[in-house]
Design goal:
Length: 445
């Protein structure tokens, strides 16, 4: 969540940031600003009553010591009245505090000042393009579905019988190619980029999703399990959720903790399945392997010092780019404008890979600096180095994440860019050691 101090000290700056994002959350911001004033006024009243009660309680002892029973009785009556008044005010505070927190959770991250202002994805500037340019195939490019089915890699029909639309079976050398892609990514990120490979749970509690910003905003996109967990006191229950990305458990590793400054940055990577209902994408990419309810992704997560997070974003984006360079796939880097950045992000770069069948670039990775937006929700902090014999200051860490890369979309890009006129697919050189030396995947029929 955003720092509430920003909304209090400079509400116009906050309004401008939300307006630049499209303005949809402006009513929630306005309601929060007004309700927060009421909340702080009530808090002040309670504190004044508490201070007066403490003074009166102290005076009771003094009156009793002086033998002034009448004064002591009057003071006792005053303390009792204050206690009742405080209880009523505190009852008023509870629902207001809950409402203000809910409103604060619903307001997206204010964009960084460096983010280009725009109204839609059409306003996203291209930052750079790869040296590897789209090749002339010399024949009419087929899409990844046709290429994959020809080599026996995909079986969408059987997957639909098993689970419905937006699911796929990947098999044979196609499955091995997908595994090779993920192994290349993990080996590169751990061996060359300094990430710690981390295996995480695929099912998490709701507070974990709230910590990274998926809840409450994107609940309709999540898969909720039927299993319930009861709180220790038996007062409530909650469902578990399947993770939509490894960003969720990886980032939450530092929740409710304090990391020494010397340990930062923490760089973690993990290969996990991802589960998304795609509730907001009805009719988009229903056919094929682009937009699935279940897919695999190698995630990159950084836990950084605040002053280093912008440089960390450049480094993280570069790490993801490396995979595309190794695979010799044409790609470009775009910077998302204010209207297109994600809910928790303050600045984002997208990597887009060339798909010959569509004659356009498609997103394959999104790399974001979330600043202290997630860490404030998770209470994830760092402790600075000791100064002058005193303990170092404690402050919120910054969190970053990016796909390094989406495995399925990388498979799609390989199938399309490495297809041949006879229906075969050339295996990229970097993947051949993971494929047992296979250089070409030939059509099955």
């Amino acid at each position: 969540m955003n720092d509430p101090k920003i909304f209090r000290k400079d509400p116009d700056l906050a309004r401008k940031g939300i307006e630049n994002r499209g303005g949809q959350n402006l009513p929630a911001l306005e309601e929060y600003i007004e309700l927060d004033k009421t909340h702080r006024e009530l808090l002040q009243e309670v504190e004044e009553m508490r201070s007066k009660r403490n003074e009166s309680s102290k005076a009771i002892g003094q009156a009793m010591g002086a033998g002034d029973k009448d004064k002591a009785d009057a003071l006792k009556a005053e303390v009792a009245t204050l206690k009742d008044a405080m209880a009523k005010k505190e009852e008023e505070l509870t629902p207001i505090a809950e409402k203000t927190r809910g409103l604060l959770l619903s307001v997206p991250h204010l964009p960084d000042a460096s983010v280009p202002i725009g109204k839609s994805e059409e306003d996203n500037p291209v930052v750079r393009e790869s040296e590897c340019k789209p090749a002339e195939l010399g024949f009419e490019a087929r899409d990844h579905v046709a290429v994959g089915e020809a080599i026996g890699a995909f079986d969408f029909e059987t997957a639909s019988k098993l689970s419905g639309s937006r699911f796929a079976i990947v098999q044979g050398l196609g499955a091995r190619l997908q595994r090779a892609i993920s192994q290349l990514m993990l080996d590169t990120h751990t061996g060359e980029h300094g990430y710690k490979e981390t295996w995480v749970p695929f099912i998490v509690r709701p507070e974990v999703l709230e910590g990274t910003g998926q809840l409450p905003k994107f609940e309709e996109d999540l898969y909720k399990t039927g299993q319930l967990e009861e709180s220790e006191d038996g007062s409530s229950t909650h469902s578990y959720y399947l993770i939509p990305t490894a960003e969720v458990p990886l980032t939450n590793i530092v929740r409710e903790s304090i990391v020494d400054e010397e340990e930062l940055p923490l760089k973690m990577t993990g290969l996990t399945p991802c589960f998304r209902q795609e509730a907001g994408s009805y009719g988009k990419d229903v056919k094929g392997f682009i937009r699935q309810h279940q897919f695999e992704k190698v995630e990159l997560v950084w836990i950084s010092k605040p002053e280093d997070s912008m440089d960390a974003l450049e480094a993280l984006t570069g790490d993801a780019e490396t995979i595309l360079k190794i695979l010799k796939l044409p790609y470009r880097v775009i910077e998302l404008c204010t209207a297109d950045i994600g809910f928790a992000a303050k600045k984002t770069y997208d990597l887009e890979v060339w798909l010959p069948s569509e004659k356009r670039y498609r997103e394959i990775s999104s790399c974001s600096n979330c600043g202290d937006f997630q860490s404030r929700r998770m209470n994830a902090r760092l402790r600075r180095k000791p100064v002058g014999g005193k303990k170092g200051a404690v402050e919120l860490v910054h969190t970053l994440n990016g796909s390094g890369l989406a495995v399925g979309r990388t498979l799609v890009a390989v199938l399309e860019n490495y297809q041949n006129a006879d229906g075969s697919v050339t295996v990229p050189e970097a993947l051949r050691p993971y494929m047992g030396g296979v250089e070409t995947i030939k059509p099955t029929a």
